[in-house]
Design a protein that fits this description.
The structure holds two protein chains of two kinds. By secondary structure, chain A is α/β, with parallel strands linked by helices. In chain A, about 25% of the residues lie in helices and about 25% in strands. Chain A has twelve helices and 22 strands. A seven-stranded mixed β-sheet of chain A has the order 11-10-12-13-15-14-20, with helices on both faces. In chain A, strand 4 (about 35-40) and strand 5 form a beta hairpin. Chain B contains twelve helices and eight strands. The interface between A and B is large, with 65 and 60 residues. The structure holds thiamine diphosphate and magnesium ion.
Chain lengths: ~475, ~350
């Protein structure tokens, strides 16, 4: 029976790709392992290898075709003795999808059990990020031009600008140089700054984090990239015991101006050891600053500020946000100060506080809440430590209601800290208990259905906002 | 005939001689190769052929299912390295344990785990070895002595040393194989483990699968000492370099190492010189090496082709016999893929199970 070759998915997030080139033509024999075509994704050009043996009977998608959806048949392989006319018969080997599983009742969601039943509202979380309404930034002068950039580009530009400005700044980490970054954040830096300042390390997190801190003690300004923050757990002793405490222990003599950066939190289907949110872990530590941007502009301005900061800064990025685009001001030296929250959406009925990818849920929920007549104010915290409590308090004094949103776990989470501060300093302004939306209290499961259930949803935020507004 | 002369016990000789032994060894390895491998019988060659082909066909199928979006996240294929786990498995006995990192499908199949259960874990279904909760990188089978399936580079080395600690503690005569990569060999906990294993004479064989790259980094760009068989030298752990593309050489070295560990002499290091044909994971375009390099390994050193050529040359099997073997394996893997495609996802209630006991 002829076998169809389907357009392959080449990364966890790929939905379509371009058929760049056919390396075999109709009538060629192919062996398992032969490269038959080249396919371009947004990140790379990949080769497609044959799995079955036979003759390339028919090419169904010509080279040069753009945006071919994953699982589209692109060619037909004929086994011994088959001819091409058999190829026109539809093949039964189409993509099958998982049989749906009835959603069994779950444990109560972490948001208030008393939340009223909500109307059916779009619940799919994070695919297209809502664009925050443009609220003028104090850091951007009137009339500034904006360019649309991905967070990936913004982060790269921030590092490149600071490296041009200060010869003591260098980047070090796994695959940052020749491979151009495991997630392509350091793209082009090796070419511009050379191997002395863009350094590939062995897989030795505890060691190179310590080397970085030592170099910082000697006055250099390292940017240490962790391939992901999951691997920084190998290095957390040096980060906390050496980087965070030495200024204090030395009575102010020895500082560590160093940035530890990389993707943090859940990506997609990479399971428990690769999907953890460390925001609250680092948020706990005096002697550190902790940053978690949501927009490309903030990513750029905050990273530049972090590199210049004389203290150790934990810079938590998010893999899912890397490819998202948003406007970045076109300025020679755009800095966003650490420790200042941003009001991403003004509102009067309820305050939603989020940061990083949590903003996706908060902004989407705010849009849906508006349809219900609930006017939510959304605060993008941006820096977790030092925390801009004043901005939160001012908002709560206005709305009287607060919901926090994070993908990390609830116990001892950042939301718990915010709730405590608001309770201590604005108790009299609260018209309802503070509610927290957070990830389920389990390690991240691999199965697609369970992973979805483990993460918070837009609906969770809506439910919580309705509960605190009693609507 | 087995030539055991390649063993180096560095710290036990003067450092200078040890270094010299190491440099001559690489060339010695090539010339002695023919003599140093114990020839297989017909049955052994056929068994090795079948086991390796099973792994290859499983991995090809997994790659295909990934392409169809049925497998998500990271998926690291073992294609090219099959002789390592198959040769080592042939040197084990019931009760011995195996532990490795995330490139683990081959190790699991070699220990006798069911391709259906492994494939269903890759697709995240309830019939998978971890009920769909672990995925490609995290599977276990106590029954088969397989202890994972670990995603943090280097972690399995300490864990494997701990399994060996338990064997030693119970004095049960079992040996642990701890597999890790050339990249993992630079993690600090590896050396902390080496020291304890030698200090306490733990029955563990460290198998460094040197496939020349850690993600996009060639070994010489990450390692000051690229002869990984010497990485235990400062702890007095013996080590040898093995042609990891030749299943006979692997089995012979495996038997020596396992016997050493089992006899109470402590840990042993085997550096397997091997190669992965595919990218690091499914989304790696592998631009850091030339197509010619990959092609050369495939055509000149393929572990399965080597056995196949032998079987045909010695007339132990005909082309048709081997085609029939392949067809049978393809059927098994298609059945595994069907199962993994049609098995339901885990029940939503599984989200909260197995967090604590
Ligand atoms: C502590 C830690 N750091 C980084 C990673 C990311 N990572 C996964 S595999 C890998 C390369 C490992 O290479 P090697 O040990 O040679 O094994 P191979 O993939 O070649 O089998 C890296 C850097 C990780 N999983 N864990
Ligand atoms: Mg390797």
């Amino acid at each position: 029976m002829p076998t169809e070759i389907l357009m392959p998915a080449l990364s966890p997030t790929m939905e379509k790709g371009n058929l760049a080139k056919w390396l075999k033509k109709e009538g060629d024999t192919v062996k398992s392992g032969d490269v038959i075509a080249e396919i371009e994704t947004d990140k790379a050009t990949m080769e497609v290898e044959a799995i079955d043996e036979g003759t390339l009977g028919k090419i169904l998608v010509p080279e040069g075709t753009q945006d071919v959806a994953v699982n589209t048949p692109i060619a037909v392989i004929l086994a011994d003795g088959e001819d091409a006319s058999a190829a026109s018969a539809p093949s039964p080997q189409a993509a099958q999808s998982a049989p749906p599983v009835e959603a069994a009742p779950l444990e109560p969601s972490p948001v208030a059990a008393s939340a009223p039943a909500a109307p059916a509202i779009v619940n799919s979380a994070v695919a297209t990020p809502p664009q925050p309404a443009a609220i003028p930034e104090p850091e951007v002068p009137e009339g500034t031009e904006f360019v649309t950039q991905t967070m990936r580009e913004a982060l790269r530009d921030a590092m490149a600008e600071e490296m041009r400005r200060d010869g003591d700044v260098f980047v070090m980490g796994e695959e940052v140089a020749e491979y151009q970054g495991a997630y392509k954040i350091t793209q082009g830096l090796l070419q511009e700054f050379g191997p002395k300042r863009v350094i590939d390390t062995p897989i030795t997190e505890h060691g190179f984090a310590g080397v970085g801190v030592g170099a910082a003690m000697a006055g250099l300004k390292p940017i240490i990239e962790f391939m992901t923050f999951n691997f920084a757990m190998q290095a957390i002793d040096q980060i906390i015991n050496s980087a965070a405490k030495t200024l204090y222990m030395s009575g102010g003599q020895v500082q560590s101006s160093i940035v530890f950066r990389g993707p943090n939190g859940a990506a997609a289907r990479v399971a428990a050891q690769h999907s953890q949110d460390y925001t609250s872990w680092y948020s706990h530590i005096p002697g550190l600053k902790v940053v978690a941007p949501y927009t490309a502009a903030d990513a750029k301005g905050l990273l530049k500020a972090a590199i210049r900061d004389p203290n150790p800064v934990i810079f938590l990025e998010n893999e899912i946000l890397y490819g998202h685009s948003s406007p970045v001001p076109k300025l020679d030296d755009f800095i966003v100060p650490l420790g200042k929250a941003r009001i991403a959406r003004a509102g009067k009925d309820v305050t939603l506080v989020a940061w990083s990818i949590g903003m996706n849920y908060a902004l989407k929920a705010a849009e849906e809440l508006a349809k219900l007549g609930i006017d939510a104010e959304v605060i993008d915290l941006r820096t977790i430590r030092p925390m801009d409590t004043d901005t939160i308090l001012a908002s709560v004094q206005k709305t009287g209601r607060l919901v926090t949103v994070e993908e990390g776990w609830g116990q001892s989470g950042v939301g718990a800290e915010i709730a405590a501060r608001v309770m201590e300093r604005a108790f009299d302004y609260l018209d309802a208990p503070v509610l927290r939306v957070f990830g389920k209290d389990v390690p991240m499961p691999y199965a697609a259905n369970l992973e979805k259930l483990a993460l918070p949803s837009v609906q969770d935020v809506i439910d919580a906002a309705r509960a605190v507004t009693y609507r | 005939m087995v030539v055991a002369a390649k063993k180096t016990v560095a710290g036990k000789t003067a450092p200078k001689t040890a270094a010299k032994a190491a440099t001559t060894r690489a060339s010695a390895r090539r010339s002695e190769k023919a003599a140093s491998v114990l020839d297989f019988t017909k049955e052994q060659d056929l068994e090795a052929y079948k086991m390796m082909l099973e792994i290859r066909r499983f991995e090809e199928k997994a790659g295909q299912l990934y392409g169809m979006g049925l497998i998500g996240g990271f998926c690291h294929l073992y294609i090219g390295q099959e002789a390592v786990v198959v040769g080592m498995q042939l040197a084990l006995k019931q009760g011995d344990q195996v532990i490795t990192g995330y490139r683990d499908h081959g190790h699991m199949l070699a220990t006798g785990m069911d391709p259906k259960g492994v494939m269903a874990e890759l697709t995240g279904r309830r019939g998978g070895y971890s009920k769909g909760k672990g995925g490609s990188m995290h599977m276990f089978s106590i029954e088969k002595g397989f202890f994972g399936g670990h995603g943090i580079v280097g972690a399995q080395v300490s864990l494997g040393t701990g399994l060996a600690f338990a064997n030693h503690y119970r004095d049960n005569g079992n040996v642990t194989l701890a597999y890790f990569g050339d990249g993992a060999a630079n993690q600090g906990q590896v050396y902390e483990s080496f020291n304890m294993a030698e200090l306490w004479k733990l029955p563990v064989v460290y198998i460094i699968e040197n496939n020349k790259y850690a993600m996009g980094t060639a070994v010489n760009r990450a390692s000051a000492q690229t002869d990984f068989s010497r990485r235990g030298a400062s702890f007095n752990i013996p080590g040898e370099q093995v042609d990891g593309m030749d299943v006979r050489a692997v089995k012979a070295a495996g038997e020596r190492a396992v016997a050493f560990a089992r006899s109470g002499k402590g840990p042993y290091i085997l550096e397997m010189l091997t190669y992965r044909y595919r990218g690091h994971s499914m989304s790696d375009p592998a631009k850091y090496r030339s197509k010619e390099e990959v092609q050369k390994m495939r055509t000149e050193h393929d572990p399965i082709e080597q056995v196949r050529a032998r079987l045909l040359e010695k007339k132990w099997a005909s082309e048709d016999d081997l085609k029939a073997v392949d067809a049978g394996i393809r059927d098994t893997m298609n059945a595994a893929a069907d199962f993994a495609t049609n098995d339901p996802e885990p029940d939503a209630s599984e989200l909260y199970t197995d967090v604590l006991r």
